[in-house]
Amino acid sequence: MGFQTIGEKVIVAGVYTGAKFYPKKFLWQKQTYLIEKITLVTDMHEGQTKKRMYSVTVGSNLYRLVFNRDSEVWVLEEVWSE
Amino acid sequence: MERIIFHVDVNSYFATIMQQENPALRGKPIGILKSAGRTCVIAASKEAKKLGIKTGERLREAKVKAPDLITIPAQFDIYLDCTHRLKKVFREFCPKVDIFSLDEAFLELTNCEEIMGEPISYAQKIQSAIKKELGSWVTCNVGISHNKLLAKMAGEIAPKGSVLVIDQSNLDSILSTVEFADVCGVGWALSKKLSFLGVTHPYQINFLDDALLSAHFGPFWSKELRKIGQGKETHFFMHAPKTDYMQSVGRTITGYKLTDDEDVIRRTLLNLLEEATYKIRHMDLAGRHIGVSLWGHERHWGAHKTLKFWVRHTSEIFPLLYEGMYKQWQRDFPIIKFGVFVGGLEPVFPTSLLPEAHKNEKISRASDAINNRFGRFTVYPATLLGQPLIRPEVTGYLGDKTYLGL
């Protein structure tokens, strides 16, 4: 099990339901990844900038997608794979 | 009216949260390291514990016990957010919540019988709510009793993910089977001293007379041990904070290796102090008691001083700590662990009427405003340039509970 730091902007599509956002898929390096499960949602902040990290699985890999709630930009921070 | 205390303890917190986040880690022995490249296992998963891996164990030794051990760097931001969410869950069940550490809390449910109903069912509802909030992999123990000592003891000895009640019917049997290592507040040194007297379980204390206890453990611990033997709440749990603000702020860090490098020692102390003073100013406090501690291989040196004036800026404290204390010491061992603290904190402002203090205050306010907006260490002393910064982190025992809003 190892991880790779990515730090690249990605495009995320998802649904809002019950006042919550659920990412469903993301586009990274011209490839679409269909999210199978959101395993953890973490709120964090850098100064006054609020961020929300969605830990999601695609196959046996774990992806950490971070949404900057100020700039509304999605970044793929890390990928964990076996 | 007998008190009703719940002690909720999330099992193997750091590792369990990582397993919740990453299903590929579930069911596998994992060890959490403070960061990649570290050699101390700061937390282990349930599976790793079954293989004999203990918190604080050297990675090399852990790998002998579990060659397939997976090591993961700690994610303190994630743990802290989970603790905030746990607190939210607890507040839905109980009006009086005491977050005891990052992964455990006491819930005072005395006089809540009508809302609560049957305690074990209520505890199971809390367990379900935690799973719903943090994820299905996250399990916790709930210990229930009439005081915090016993509730925590119940939480410690209950099988993973279960509920255990200690009441008069099982008190003596539990006190005669539980080991002192599972009694909160009794440290390793005291356990060892007790074992020299042949005492390994709390109930055995009842067979020692007061004079013998006093002779071996002094006036304070003899009384505390007597209480433990009878399952009564000890001073450790009754010690309520005297104020609603923090009385001291400290910061320690363990380096990767022993060092004799004076530049590293100076920069590390400065970096730690910068973090401590930021927190003090953030809470609008100032202190009069300052100290420094350094650890080598099985050796320690420390110094502290009470000042006649109030301080809260790195520029005023660092010369006192570094030149006034550290440089006066003839260091005779290499250092691996560093610590600074500022105590005697009070909401005192202004700290001084002297122009120099006003200048310090203005500079700090400006840099704090930038750091508050853009994140910690966006602005920092130029003397810290050229080396990796030591950034703030939470500790398991949550010394910064008030600062973190818990």
What does this protein structure show overall?
- The complex is a heterodimer of chains A (82) and B (406).
- Chain A has 82 residues and is mainly beta.
- Helices cover 0% and strands 79% of the residues of chain A.
- Chain A contains no helices and eight strands.
- Chain A has strands at residues 2-9, 11-17, 20-28, 31-34, 37-46, 49-58, 61-68, 73-81.
- The termini of chain A are close together.
- With 406 residues, chain B is of the alpha+beta class.
- In chain B, helix 4 (76-93) runs antiparallel to helix 6 (119-134) and helix 12 (262-282) packs antiparallel against helix 13 (314-322).
- The longest helix of chain B is centred in the middle third of the chain and has 21 residues, at 210-230.
- Chain B starts with a strand and ends in a 32-residue tail after the last helix.
- The A-B interface holds A 1, 37, 39-40, 42-44, 46-49, 53, 55, 57, 60, 62, 80, 82 and B 17, 20-25, 70, 72, 77-78, 81-82, 84, 134-135, 371-376, 378.
Question: Can you give keywords for this protein?
Answer:
heterodimer; A: 82 residues; mainly beta; five-stranded antiparallel sheet; three-stranded antiparallel sheet; 8 strands; globular; B: 406 residues; alpha+beta; five-stranded mixed sheet; four-stranded mixed sheet; 14 helices; 39% helix
Question: What's the SSE blueprint?
Answer:
The complex is a heterodimer of chains A (82) and B (406).
Chain A: E1 2-9, E2 11-17, E3 20-28, E4 31-34, E5 37-46, E6 49-58, E7 61-68, E8 73-81
Antiparallel strand pairs in A: 1-8, 2-3, 3-4, 5-6, 6-7, 7-8
Chain B: E1 5-10, H1 13-21, E2 30-33, E3 40-44, H2 46-50, E4 57-58, H3 59-65, E5 70-73, H4 76-93, E6 96-101, E7 104-108, H5 113-116, H6 119-134, E8 140-145, H7 148-157, E9 163-165, H8 171-177, H9 188-196, H10 210-230, H11 235-238, E10 248-259, H12 262-282, E11 287-295, E12 300-311, H13 314-322, E13 335-343, H14 355-374
Parallel strand pairs in B: 2-5, 8-9
Antiparallel strand pairs in B: 1-7, 1-8, 2-3, 3-4, 6-7, 10-13, 11-12, 11-13
Helix pairs in contact in B: 4-6, 12-13
